[in-house]
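To: structure desk
From: M.T.
Subject: fold request, one chain
Message: Could you run this one when you get a chance? Sequence is below, nothing fancy, just the single chain.
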Amino acid sequence: MKRLGLGLILSLFSYTASGKVLFEGWFDVYLGAKKVGYSVQRYEFGDGKFKAVTYLKTNAEGGNITESLKAFSAPDLKPISYSYTSKAGDAVKLVDATFKGESMTLKINDGKAEKKEAKKIKKGTFLSTFLLYLMMSQENGLSVGKNYAYYAIAEEDGTTQNGKALVSGKEKVKGKEALKVLNEFKGDRFFSFVTPTGEFLLTRNPTNNIEMRRADSQEAATKDFTVDKSSLKLLFGTLPGDQATAPEPKPAPTEEKK
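Reply: Done. Structure tokens follow.
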């Protein structure tokens, strides 16, 4: 299996200062056959960096979880910073991380106390939320049979983990041609269906029996659930809509090292 190239080179983007949305979509969250929540994701590029914002909300059957992530990476996908928050019942967790070179500074707060940590990370390590975009940056990136081995940061706890991914085949999902990506990360095995331009359609974790399915609209995803629009606007900057993946930009191919 080939190791991902350490010097990832992406083409330069000439976007407006407000950013270009690469993907934005709402999802239904299922536990088995039961819908237990919703999620929304937005990926964009602007001001010389990638930005990912995600939000998840579940009901009591799904653990009463509220989770959000705001992450930033450089054009070559080197991590810049991220903020992760979660609330599951009465348990609260906040993780803030900043990066300089191959150093990561963490602040982790459990709602009672805060601890700070400084860690060294391997060259080529990236934030796990950007895995799909890193895969797309490789030569023949999202092509069937393509293997990837990588090091990524698990944003929920600030640890660096080994991972591997495989584009195993093609299928139709929600009427669209999709690539099936098998992924192993942090001891979990799961798979996703994505379009060649990076549109997420479905993600499933068979071990936990959890599935996220692309919803037809915001209204469909949030039906029968409370939506805190003010918090979403604060997190995303604007209330997320339903935008398809932008066909461009496309990362330039990069060399891989064995």
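Reply (cont.): Helices lie at 131-137, 218-222, 229-236. Let me know if you need anything else for the meeting.
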